[in-house]
Amino acid sequence: MMCSLWGRLPGVCGGASRPHLQLLCPSLSLPTPAPKHLPSTPATHTHHGIKRTFCTNFYSLSPLSEFGVARKGRGMWAKGGCVWGVKGVRGISLTAPRHMFWEKDPKGGYGKEIKKSHKELIRDGLKELRQEMSKWQEEMNDKFDMDPIFVLPGDMHKVWVLDRQEALDKFVVTCDSDHGEGKSSASLTLSPSGHGLFSGELCTEVPKDGRITKAGYCNLKSIRPRKSFKREVYHNWIDFNMLEIRLRGDGRSYLLNITCSGYYDLMWNDIYTYPLYTRGGPHWQLTRIPFSKFILSSKGRVQDKQSPMPQSQVVSVGISAGDRSNAPFRLEIDYIGVYKDPDHTETFAYEMYTHEKFMLGS
User: Between 68 and 227, whose confidence is greater?
Assistant: First the structure.
């Protein structure tokens, strides 16, 4: 990682009129004798209008970036992780920069940018304008009607009923092969009985690219709800306390994911997870899981500092298949909904440790 922290240290060569600037970097950078065929006089380098002086006997032991390929340019060449020039030396590691506390993409670089011409954008926008206007009209009618919804104990609300193709279009299916990170495959179709069928085949074979270490996952995720004109909203389940799913499985275990993305990038990947165990056979099963049982995780890692699920900020619900078994899977889903159990009064099932101020829990 390229570091911008510089420390003013005494020069190690005697020809300088002022102390040199030496890089303070996590990589192992040590002042060592310069090669005999390179000059040992200090050189001046200008970067963003700031003039800095370097010494040729500053030698970096950090690995060379860009897969170890030496870069050759105008009067300079790379060796040992440093860039050496004919007139001077720049002791900066060329490793790719990494942002530690800032995320610029909510999908972590896995999103696909679809490029369209201005003509296609105008044409597609006019087609969607009629649909968005009808949505807006329905929203205005609901607002003026002011019909409040009262949730009574024992009430159940079906959020997604997977019985037609329009309902299946509200979900997105992804797997490791979509990004060149594996060979698994998955799809969401209508079963012969008229229900949503999440099926595919898991493959844990790791691609031989030297980058991927684990493979074998398939994921089903609902699309984020939006109001008219693409305004993002949340699922508000504050009046319910359980997630209810009617399904018919194959005896394998899956993972339920409830995404509760926050406004800041630190909370973009907040997902509450809980295992989903299925029974094999032809019979349907009704599964109810309290929201208090879900575990907070981020980017696949369980967080030390747990917190209850913000049920008023639910973005999506998903099901993941990744039990490390190289075999086909089949999960038939009737509906996904929420349920209010009057006998369940638990707020959160796990211990919440008290941390000192300014301490990060990860």
Answer: 227
Of 251, 188, 183, 245, nearest to 217 (Cα)?
Answer: 183
Cα–Cα distance measured from residue 238 to residue 308, given in angstroms and rounded to the nearest whole number:
12
Q: Are 15 and 42 in contact (CB under 8 A)?
A: yes
Cα 151 to Cα 241, 315, 339, 342: the distances in Å are 11, 21, 10, 11
C-beta separation of 45 from 54 below 8 A? yes
* Whole-number Å distance between alpha carbons of 215 and 325: 11
Q: How far apart are CA 248 and CA 284, in angstroms?
A: 5
| Residues 179-235 pLDDT 10s | 888 999 999 999 999 999 999 999 999 988 888 888 999 999 999 988 888 888 899
Report phi then psi at 128, rounded to 5: -80, -15
Output the CA–CA distances (angstroms, integers) from residue 61 to 27, 30, 80, 299, in the order listed.
7, 7, 6, 32
Which two tokens mark 214? 């684990």
CA–CA distance, 131 with 153 (Å, rounded to integer): 36
- Whether 345 shows a pLDDT value over 70: the answer reads yes
